Amino acid sequence: MRILIATDAWHPQVNGVVRTLTSLAGAASALGAEIEFLTPDGFASLGVPTYPGLRVALPNRREIARRIETASPEAIHIATEGPIGWSVRAYCRRNKLPFTTSYTTRFPEYVSVRTGIPVSLGYAVLRHFHAAAATIMIATDSLRQELAARGFRKLGFWTRGVDTGLFNPDSPASLDLPRPIFMTMGRVAVEKNLEAFLSLDLPGTKVVVGDGPQKASLAHKYPEVKFLGEKKGQDLTSHLAAADVFVFPSLTDTFGVVQLEALACGTPVAAFPVTGPLDVIADQPIGALDSDLRSACLRAAGMSREACRNFALERSWENSARQFIGNLTALQPSRSLQPALRVAGRSAVQG
User: Fold this and answer.
1) Alpha carbons 159 and 181: distance in angstroms, whole number
2) Which residue of 51, 113, 130, 139 is most buried, as measured by CB atoms within 10 A?
């Protein structure tokens, strides 16, 4: 099966959506599916302030059509609700082509935190966006219940996985810091609720791995916290493996794949009992959930690192890819896509 995934989130961004889509492509290939991506590459970017490395594309309708038709996919999936996602949605609607979507980011909450726009308005826009999809893929049962209560329909499961080869406990970084080390990792931005963690009175050391618009102000406000900047690949893995507890303070993530990455490195998780942590950690002895985040951090510090690793080993990207492909096999395009413009090679899809 040839699958085209449209996404506004793409490299050089470092976030859960990008890591999920990249891992999905590799696992799907092993199952005989070919995934290509229609990304912001090759489009002009909107001149708006945003996260470091994040490009908000200004897609051209004709170029969107050319890239889709050059790829000649058998199925189309829209991963994000940004300009790329809306443009591909419009193409599919014009040409009566079915498509699937996924709900991976709480944009209504994020936008509300930054602008004050009511959350209810954001969800009205997203209901309209996703209502045209054959299936809306979501990662957890608690998110399914939440979205169903907000009027979303045609919800289907697409769980997440973890690359246990890359994320492993074998080579922890040498961090010359007082123990225990409580670490969080990800985008340093207001919607991640980092101050709920940074303001805690904890023994040892609090560490932040990542970059983002709040980094400078938080580093100034919390001088005792170690801000180590962005890490990638093996460097990221070694830092996760070096932590005693991974702290996930977000209240708005729909899943939080970084939880699985930390567990694969043998590091227990401390989080609030909200969507994402409730589905990943639940009552398993691999982390602690509590409305008192300090209590969760202290309880998690004594948990078995071997149990964390074993839990992650059962969450493969292969199983995730099987679910994703299964959601697409039901699509029966009303017409086959015929490339309007032949372009040598497939690189034209990404620009």
Assistant:
1) 30
2) 139
